[in-house]
Design goal:
Distance between the termini: 16 Å
CATH superfamily: Aldolase class I
Largest sheet: 8 strands, parallel, barrel
Mean pLDDT: 94
Number of strands: 10
Low-confidence stretches: none
Bound molecules: glyceraldehyde-3-phosphate, 1,3-dihydroxyacetonephosphate, zinc ion
CATH topology: TIM Barrel
Number of helices: 13
Strand order of the largest sheet: 1-2-3-4-5-8-9-10
Shape: globular
Length: 317
């Protein structure tokens, strides 16, 4: 059942974070739905502009519709990840999305407000909620490169002003994470002090943590042992820190890179061990099962596992 993102946030705020997982193909969809059902978790399916281009908008949306038919007991929202204005309008008009992200964080503050406000007006007219972003995450964000050294943490006063002026429903904040596999070069972690300051100024307002993959060292090692060349300097977010971020207002946690690592590990190991095989359904089947276990594990860390019944009860009210 597709639900609104705001309904999920209303149940989750301060208690658990909803996992927001990017998908690009059928195998990811099968693993994603299976993993969330196995762990009895509500979730958010995210589609990036890159995914819409890669799979074709009609195809990726049809995959989600099919997954919903196969698993009618799943409770999830459909979200546009890192949208620009044009794509956000496209998704709002399509009637399929629960929420859209407008990412204008690379623009100056006033322009970010103006763009976000325009999207909010169009989205709210259709009952769709809007995630905006303020501050800059390091790493690679679609086609925008941000030097990690210049990554800017979100300013708490600006965050409150931004929400007031733009009318957005949730805010992606920069608190030390970045996209991709190379988030931290040393012992850096999440900036909880900054997060607490933001929450103080925006009480009860859902905050979103992008760039939340953990980049498990075990996964990197297995990929490299099977012929990969991922630098071992690759570091991610300590998944045990999600529980500390939740009471500070983090309600949505975005994970994509970790899923790509699972895919890469499964396929590299499969073809290393079975060099004569060429039926892609072999590794595909293993990937679906491994991805499902990965999702179930993440949901335990996010606190969303085992929440399906209470979400259903809240939705029924
Ligand atoms: O934050 C970006 C997400 O990981 C989506 O990546 O734009 O390559 O689909 P993508
Ligand atoms: P990761 O690259 O850490 O998986 O972040 C994904 C993300 O933020 C999607 O919007
Ligand atoms: Zn992101």
């Amino acid at each position: 059942m597709i639900v609104t993102t705001s309904d999920l946030f209303a149940v989750a705020y301060g208690r658990f974070a909803v996992g927001a997982y990017n998908i690009n193909n059928m195998e990811q969809a099968l693993g994603l739905f299976r993993g969330n059902l196995e762990s009895e978790a509500p979730f958010i399916v995210q589609i990036s502009r890159g995914s819409r281009k890669y799979a074709n908008v009609k195809m990726i949306e049809a995959i989600i519709r099919a997954a919903e038919e196969i698993h009618p007991e799943a409770v999830f929202a459909v979200h546009l990840d890192h949208g620009d204005e044009e794509t956000a309008y496209d998704c709002i008009e399509s009637g399929f999305y629960s929420s859209v992200m407008i990412d204008a964080s690379h623009h100056p503050f006033e322009e970010n407000v103006a763009i976000t406000k325009r999207v909010v007006e169009r989205a709210h007219a259709k009952g769709i909620s809007v995630e905006a972003e303020l501050g800059m995450l390091g790493g690679v964000e679609e086609d925008i490169q941000v030097d990690e050294k210049h990554a800017m943490l979100t300013d708490p006063d600006e965050a409150a002003e931004f929400v007031r002026l733009s009318g957005c429903d949730s805010l992606a904040v920069a608190i030390g994470t970045s996209h991709g596999a190379y988030k931290f070069s040393g012992r850096q972690g999440l900036h909880f002090g900054r997060l607490a300051e933001i929450q103080k100024r925006l009480p009860d307002f859902p905050l979103v943590m992008h760039g939340s993959s953990s980049v498990p060292q075990s996964e990197v090692k297995r990929i490299n042992a099977a012929g990969g060349e991922i630098p071992t300097s690759a570091r991610g977010v300590d998944e045990n820190e999600f529980a500390k971020a939740v009471p500070l207002g983090v309600t949505k946690v975005n994970i994509d890179t970790d899923g790509r690592l699972v895919w890469t590990r499964v396929h590299r190991e499969f073809f290393r061990d079975e060099p004569a095989k060429f039926d892609f359904r072999g590794p595909g089947k293993i990937f679906v099962a491994e991805y499902a276990s990965f999702i179930a594990h993440k949901n335990q860390k996010l606190g969303s596992a085992g929440r399906l019944e209470e979400v259903r009860a809240a939705l029924a009210k």
